[in-house]
Design a protein that fits this description.
The chain has about 350 residues and is mostly helical. The chain has two domains: about 1-275, Up-down Bundle (Rhopdopsin 7-helix transmembrane proteins), CATH 1.20.1070.10; about 320-344. About 80% of the residues lie in helices and about 0% in strands. The chain is built from 16 helices and two strands. Strands 1-2 form a two-stranded antiparallel ribbon.
Length: about 350
């Protein structure tokens, strides 16, 4: 099950996050605050997939390092949890950024600036290396198992339920609702007028498309992530309860789906969610692919330029000049014919 389920997620998620990094690093998006958060989220999502899935695939036919390496037992979950929470925090900040962008208060709109994003990105990294420091402190190996001893198991389950299961989706949901209300107020306050400056229209359309992308990503996050803290909390509560073999098998399967499969869907699916929900993002991906193809396959570029030169249609001014030139040539021919007759 690990090989069939996690290997495709690792491959597709790795490709998707790399494409996200390339798209959000383009000049058009590089200086947008929300794109900075999504770029940072794509980088840490790539790390999360590496920290979580590669060790699981490694232990399919080998002994799990959790059973004999105290360093791996303490630091494995620590780095995985920190990277996952960094990605979730960047998604929350992106939702707040779009919410403040639509605010009627100018001071609140100041949050949606590139300089603010560049300060918050490293701050999130520092915060999430400090907050989960309790994981390497208390995790230990007992009976050849890496586990959370004693009452710390219940404390960690409550912490996971609040930090991963409740706070991010609640904050994302509030920001999404406020964004929707702000957009409705803007539409009611300002009559839609066709703008002359097309660049401003594209910027507004891009912001709107990013909001749609974030709303879809929030839904995927809630579906894929909420099961894990609930499973951890349930396991801590029923840790000392005697269970039958069937109950243990069902719980083991549910634990794998919640903590070993679904938890990675959010980090692996962001590119595909953005691609299928945003026309602007699809156009950006197509431009990226075209630029990469023309850069690394110059022969294709030459053939395309030749094809374009062949298929170029004359403009209106050029067409008018051609008509005048034809009239002048016809007039000259008539004059020449008349002169020949006179000479005869």
């Amino acid at each position: 099950m690990t090989r069939c389920g996690l290997v495709p997620i690792l491959i597709l998620g790795g490709i998707g996050n790399i494409l996200n990094i390339l798209v959000f690093n383009r000049k058009v998006l590089r200086f947008t605050s929300c794109s900075v958060y999504l770029l940072a989220a794509s980088v840490v999502n790539l790390l999360s997939l590496s920290f979580g899935i590669i060790p699981s695939i490694y232990t399919i036919n080998r002994i799990n390092p959790d059973t004999y390496s105290m360093i791996y037992c303490k630091l494995g979950l620590y780095f995985l949890h920190a990277s996952l929470m960094m990605g979730r925090s960047y998604l929350v900040l992106a939702c707040i950024d779009r919410c403040t962008l639509c605010s009627p208060v100018s001071k609140i709109r100041d949050f949606s600036q590139i300089k603010v994003a560049r300060r918050l990105v490293p701050a999130v990294i520092i915060i999430w290396f400090i907050i989960p420091a309790h994981i390497p402190t208390f995790n230990t190996i007992q009976n050849r198992q890496c586990l959370r001893p004693g009452s710390y198991d219940l404390i960690y389950s409550i912490y996971s339920l609040i930090v991963a299961g409740l706070l991010p989706p609640v904050m994302m949901g509030i920001a999404t609702i406020l964004t929707y209300k702000n957009l409705r107020q803007i539409r009611q306050r300002i009559n839609p007028v066709r703008m002359i400056d097309s660049s401003r229209v594209r910027i507004r359309q891009r912001d709107y498309q990013i909001m749609i992308m974030l709303m879809a990503q929030v839904i995927v996050y809630v579906i894929s992530t909420l099961a894990y803290p609930v499973d951890v909390f349930y396991g801590a509560l029923t840790r000392h309860v005697v269970k039958s073999a069937e109950e243990q098998a069902v719980e083991k399967f549910c634990s794998f789906m919640a903590g070993g499969f679904l938890i990675y869907l959010d980090t692996a699916s962001s590119f595909y969610v953005y691609y299928f929900t945003s026309t602007t993002f699809r156009h950006d991906v197509q431009r990226l692919m075209m630029n990469c193809g023309l850069k690394y396959f110059p022969k294709i570029n030459v053939l395309r330029m030749r094809r374009n030169t062949i298929n170029i249609q004359p403009t209106a001014m050029q067409h008018e000049r051609i008509i005048i030139a034809n009239k002048m040539s016809n007039h000259n021919e008539k004059l020449n014919n008349h002169q020949d007759k006179v000479n005869e």
